[in-house]
Specification:
Elements lengths: L18 H6 L9 H4 L26 E2 L2 E8 L2 E8 L4 E5 L2 E5 L7 E9 L12 E7 L2 E7 L1 E5 L3 E8 L5 E9 L5 E2 L11 E9 L1 H5 L3 E2 L32 E7 L15 E7 L8 H4 L6 E7 L11 E8 L2 E13 L3 E7 L10 E8 L4 E2 L12 E5 L2
Parallel strand pairs: 9-22, 12-19
Antiparallel strand pairs: 1-14, 2-3, 3-6, 4-5, 6-10, 7-8, 7-11, 9-10, 11-13, 15-16, 16-17, 17-20, 18-19, 18-21, 19-20, 21-23
Length: about 375
């Protein structure tokens, strides 16, 4: 069983909280009636139960929550949606150290930002900052950096708990700092500038109470609840393996371990590809990486196949037991390859029988909700035998 990370109370602007009124107002008659779930209403989302004997892997959480929508808009090429749910805990990372962010007494709502490219519909991982500023008629109420987050129901998004100034009208300004990772193909030169999206927000405790809460029957088991259907708002799924260009060298990760053991991938799934082995046909996907072949690895969660960003990877290709290529794989965003990790491959083409080892040097530096907080922490090697 994985130990619970230590609590780490946050600092930041605080205002008169409505958590108490939400908690004690009751959820009878809603889809998430807490009494039928066996929980005390005042503690249901402030510190809901964790699944017992959590594995060092992706697991089904003890409780799941729905969400409400404040709106969606565009800011330049960015598509931006602002959604909300109950304030709830999450885990942040620094290297492999985790800190549990608990719900504070003045937290009113958990705000979530979904971000995507309006031309391709691809979810965007922003590593240069995204913050939410909330104002009312009296001025600034709160401003917090929204963490990049991983959730089974929301996929890849940005979020935090926010303290408001009571029920009423607000204006939320979502500032996107831009994408700093390497961008190729149709993404080259895109997403460099900061942008701001503005939303009118009406905070209503009664509306928050309507957000559903449920308790999965198989809590604690390896697996995941499916992402919510959100129309055109993407959850950050990695491209289907069969749709990715190039030669599929193989897959490693979660399926290589037994039901009871750890995997060197920390439960992540690695798919390796090679493009540009023969660029004589002038294929644009191949040519954008130069004349040499390009090796790339797509990393995703098991079950829901959500992209795992902000990792450090190093690849070693061996032939007959001798290394012929070793290189750090660079985080890259591409409209066809998606978010991936890649490098120019060796001049001798990859052959059947070669072995590719991918070492995780930095685990995904992304905050996690329940069900992901015990996974993706291993820094070992995974191996792919090229077939």
């Amino acid at each position: 069983m994985s130990p619970s990370p230590p609590s780490n109370p946050r600092s930041g602007a605080t205002r008169r909280a409505f958590l108490g009124s939400v908690a004690t107002g009751g959820l009878l008659g809603t889809a998430g009636c807490l009494q039928t779930l066996g929980f005390r209403r005042e503690s249901a989302w402030r510190d809901p139960p964790l699944a017992e004997d959590r594995p060092d892997a992706v697991y089904v959480p003890a409780m799941t929550e729905g969400m409400g929508m404040y709106g969606k808009t565009t800011a330049g090429r960015y598509g931006v949606a602002l959604t909300y749910s109950y304030p709830h805990r999450f885990w942040t990372l620094s290297g492999t150290d985790t800190s549990k962010t608990v719900v504070e007494a003045d937290d009113d709502v958990h705000l979530m930002v979904s971000l995507w490219d309006t031309e391709t519909g691809q979810a965007l991982p922003v590593d240069s900052g995204l913050d939410v500023e909330i104002r009312n008629d009296e001025g600034l109420v709160t401003q917090e950096v929204a963490y990049p987050m991983l959730s089974q129901q929301m996929g890849m998004h940005y979020g935090d708990n926010y303290a408001l100034d009571g029920e009423g009208a607000y204006e939320a300004h979502v500032r996107v700092g831009g994408v700093s990772v390497r961008r190729t193909g149709g993404f080259a030169g895109a997403f460099e500038s900061a942008a701001t999206a503005t939303f009118d927000v009406e905070f209503d405790a009664d509306e928050l109470r309507k957000v559903s809460i449920s308790r999965p029957e198989n809590a604690g088991e390896r697996g995941a609840v499916p992402p919510m259907e959100m129309g055109e708002i993407p959850v950050g799924r990695a491209p289907a393996v069969e749709s990715l260009p190039g030669r599929h060298l193989g897959r490693a990760g979660a399926e290589q371990r037994s039901a009871d053991s750890r995997t060197a991938s920390g439960d992540a799934v690695f798919d390796a590809f090679l493009v540009g082995e023969d660029t004589s046909d002038g294929d644009s996907t191949d040519q954008r990486f130069g004349a040499s072949p390009y090796l790339y690895v797509s990393v995703r969660t098991p079950h829901n196949e959500i992209t795992l960003p902000m990792m450090g990877l190093r690849a070693t290709l061996s032939r007959d037991g001798e290394p012929i290529f070793e290189e750090t794989l660079r985080s890259t965003l591409d409209p066809e390859l998606g978010y991936h990790y890649g490098a120019v491959a060796p001049a001798p083409h990859v052959r059947k029988g070669d072995q590719l080892r991918v070492k995780t040097t930095t685990t995904p530096q992304i905050a996690r909700h329940d069900g992901y907080e015990t996974a993706f922490f291993e820094t070992g090697d995974v191996s792919i035998d090229v077939s």
